[in-house]
Structure to design on (281 residues):
């Protein structure tokens, strides 16, 4: 018989090889193996894991050791204090992406009934966070992947949000006839062949890579969003820290103004904000 506490200790040791948070991962996997919330572990450290639970734990530890993100194994990830469903069809929401939400909410008045657009929504993390904080706004969430969009709709339903509209399509293509007060995107922005990709191989490549300089998607957004933004509207783009200058150049070439880059919690330039005064390129 294995006690919960020793199962956690042993799993923590093994997971240290692949995880930056091995203890947390171990706890979440043990909790999942016994089908109990994590809090149960601390109240019942001496409970023992039966044979089927030990087997379930071993399977998920092996998945994690093979490089699968914990969020894909558990099927969920917390973002903006919301429990979100994720699948291998979507990126795992990152804490730094909460900066996009924070900046959008700073701009959108509490009772506004604005039109908000989230391009490349993936799991719907950004759209769902904003829709839950601004119930009078309508948030349109677009993604080229129907599998990802199914996850986004599920997340909107799970949180009882009637103000999220999910549409399949390539960037602005399905919303060309509309106008938005705020446009947000966490597009792919990693360079082809970037060594950092080795650690991201479980995640959908189309959500990560954007050409030789990582700017292919951002170039499309700078160009095409200028014709669907309301006059004076705000666009917020997530990017890599070293892309700040190139993005500013790209944005001003398409008439964007008041271009300003914000730092994430780790101090890295992460989100560039811009406004468009005319609604036309
Ligand atoms: N922020 C992610 C990473 O570098 C990349 C996400 C993206 O390309 N949008 O791990």
């Amino acid at each position: 018989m294995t006690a919960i506490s020793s199962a956690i200790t042993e799993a923590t040791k093994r997971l240290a090889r692949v995880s930056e948070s091995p203890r947390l991962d171990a706890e979440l996997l043990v909790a999942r193996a016994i089908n109990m919330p994590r809090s149960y572990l601390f109240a019942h450290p001496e409970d023992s894991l039966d044979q089927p639970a030990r087997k379930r734990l071993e399977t998920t530890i092996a998945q994690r050791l093979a490089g699968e993100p914990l969020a894909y194994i558990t099927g969920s990830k917390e973002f903006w204090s919301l429990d979100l469903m994720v699948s291998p069809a979507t990126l795992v929401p990152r804490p730094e992406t909460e900066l996009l939400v924070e900046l959008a909410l700073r701009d959108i008045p509490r009772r506004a009934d604005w039109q908000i657009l989230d391009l490349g929504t993936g799991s719907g993390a950004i759209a769902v966070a904003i829709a839950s904080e601004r119930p009078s706004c309508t948030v349109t969430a677009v993604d080229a992947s129907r599998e990802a969009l199914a996850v986004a709709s599920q997340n909107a339903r799970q949180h009882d949000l009637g103000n999220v509209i999910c549409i399949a399509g390539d960037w602005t293509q399905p919303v060309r006839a509309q106008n938005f007060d705020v446009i947000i995107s966490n597009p792919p922005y990693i360079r082809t062949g970037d060594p950092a990709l080795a650690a991201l191989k479980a995640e959908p490549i189309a959500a990560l890579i954007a050409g030789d300089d990582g700017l292919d998607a951002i170039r499309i957004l700078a160009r095409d969003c200028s014709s669907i933004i309301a006059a004076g509207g705000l666009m917020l783009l997530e990017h890599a820290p070293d892309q700040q200058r190139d993005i500013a150049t790209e944005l001003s070439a398409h008439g964007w103004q008041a271009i300003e880059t914000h730092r994430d919690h780790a101090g890295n330039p992460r989100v560039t904000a811009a406004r468009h005064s005319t609604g036309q390129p």
Q: What stands out?
A: The pocket of glutamine is lined by residues 91, 94, 186, 188-190, 200, 208 (CB under 6 Å). The chain has two domains: 2-67, 80-276. The two ends are 68 Å apart (CA to CA).
